[in-house]
Amino acid sequence: MTYVYDDTNIFAMILRGDIPNSTVTETDYSLAFRDINPQSPVHILLIPKGKYVTIDDFAANAGLEEVADFWRTFAAIIDGEGLQQKGFRVISNAGEHGLQEVPHFHLHILGGKALGPILAQ
Ligand code: DGP
């Protein structure tokens, strides 16, 4: 499977520093920032700095250091935001059926309230 990365997507612009973001944490390989349109009291987007379109692109093609950094950063966010005790939800939309708006792989990390059913319909 080949993945075609669009350098004009909004998260690429954030990574280039062209538009500001509310950074939660940053490493050599990963960036986490607050969603501009939060769906819950905690709504963080975690992205790799590398050019991966979807979660499966990242899983198949990222280097092991990137993968390890990403998941350790994820764990640090859960800890830092105090989400372990009450729990949280992670979503990654991919492609057309997943209604992915921004074609740079990202995790939505949602928490801070009871989130309801996983799907609205
Ligand atoms: P998705 O549908 O999974 O691709 O969700 C993309 C998310 O990105 C959506 O929840 C809104 C968020 N978003 C879009 N543009 C910006 C932006 O410029 N800054 C921030 N912080 N979030 C954005």
In words, what does this structure look like?
The protein is α+β, with helices and mostly antiparallel strands. It has one domain (10-111): HIT-like (HIT family, subunit A), CATH 3.30.428. The protein has three helices and five strands. It has helices at 10-16, 55-61, 64-80, and strands at 23-26, 30-34, 42-48, 88-91, 107-111. It has a five-stranded antiparallel sheet with strand order 1-2-3-5-4, covered by helices on one side. A hairpin with a 7-residue loop joins strand 2 (30-34) and strand 3 (42-48). The longest helix has 17 residues, at 64-80. The protein binds 2'-deoxyguanosine-5'-monophosphate. Residues 10, 19, 21, 33-37, 45, 93, 99-102 line the site of 2'-deoxyguanosine-5'-monophosphate (DGP).
Describe the sheet with the most strands.
5 strands, antiparallel
CATH superfamily: HIT-like
- Our Rg estimate from Cα atoms comes to 14 Å
> Shape, please?
globular
Report the structural category.
Answer: alpha+beta
- List the helices and strands in order: HEEEHHEE
Bound molecules: 2'-deoxyguanosine-5'-monophosphate
> CATH fold name, please?
HIT family, subunit A
- Order of strands across the biggest sheet? 1-2-3-5-4
By DSSP (H or I, 4+ residues per run), the number of helices equals 3
Give the number of domains. Answer: 1
C-alpha termini separation: 31 Å
